[in-house]
Amino acid sequence: MMVPVRCFTCGNVVGEHWEEFDERANEGDEDPQEVLDDLGVDRYCCRRMLVSHTDLVDVVSPYQ
Amino acid sequence: MSEEYDVEFVEREEREARFLVRGISPGFANGIRRAMVADVPTMAIDTVRFIENSSVMFDEQLALRLGLVPLTTPPEGEFGEDDTVTLSIDVEGPATAYSGDLVSEDDLVQPADENVPIIELKEDQRLEAEADAVLDRGKDHAKHQGGVAIGYRHLQRVEVVGDLPEFEEQESRIVRGVIEDDGELVPTSEFDHDLSNRYPGKEVEVEDVPNAFVFHVETDGSLDVEELVTRAADSIESRATELEEAVQL
Hints:
Catalytic activity (chain A): RNA(n) + a ribonucleoside 5'-triphosphate = RNA(n+1) + diphosphate
Number of domains of chain B: 2
Largest sheet of chain A: none
CATH topology of the largest domain in chain B: Gyrase A, domain 2
Order of helices and strands of chain A: HHHH
Organism (chain A): Natronolimnohabitans innermongolicus JCM 12255
Distance between the termini of chain A: 14 Å
InterPro entries (chain A): RNA_pol_su_RPB10, RNA_pol_suN_Zn-BS, RPABC5/Rpb10
GO molecular function, one term (chain A): DNA-directed RNA polymerase activity
Cofactor (chain A): Zn(2+)
Distance between the termini of chain B: 20 Å
CATH architecture of the largest domain in chain B: 2-Layer Sandwich
Oligomer: heterodimer
Helix content of chain B: 10-25%
Number of helices of chain A: 4
Shape of chain B: flat
Largest interface: A-B, 19 and 27 residues
CATH superfamily of the largest domain in chain B: RNA polymerase, RBP11-like subunit
Number of strands of chain B: 12
Strand order of the largest sheet of chain B: 1-2-12-9-10-11
């Protein structure tokens, strides 16, 4: 639903990078790899948290 | 009783550092690592009282998200294990509630990262809650872990033993961590972790330096690296003292 606050594996805080990542890599046309490097998300455990995440708040909210 | 150790920083930032410690046994190195992960108390939200939550997520889901937000940990001695600090959050949609919206009653305990989205609120949705933060250890819950991805490696000594035969193609030789070359410490990232980049045309030998460990320490922002390492060392000392007193006749 919302982006996880921390990486499941290592506990690094990844939530703070989501909005920028989403804007640049998902909405924009930048290379996700470069965006993640730029954000300082180095480990692949943290990188998959952002790459594989989908926001579902918009999908769920009509059913409140 | 305290012994002196030779500690040298290779890289040093507020939240991430690499340092070399000489003259410790592998067991002690692991002890420090474990103390950094599980034994340094940090602040984190533990109990949340919801006054209003009309968002798309349940109370307990939001409480977990709030708990995972790193909070700055006050200097040692300021708080005991049973003290609580209350933080409150009040956000009305349409907006996103961020960790930075948490208002703390104590200046020493603040969200370390302000941009963590807690929940996206739509029109007419509101989140109002009070949260109690407590001091606890990584042993009890991962949210109290100050250190993130902490590890250590042997320091490796690289020696040039000769030239490669003239017409032989050099194979790549991958090492990771920090190498010692004539007393100089070089992180392997400087030469893309490949010794053939640093010593083209040379034959090299790599060996572990006994009892020298390079720690890589990263924190989630609740403490800075230096604070985390010293508190970890202090916690080992206090436990050792406790044990000594307990077994005395």
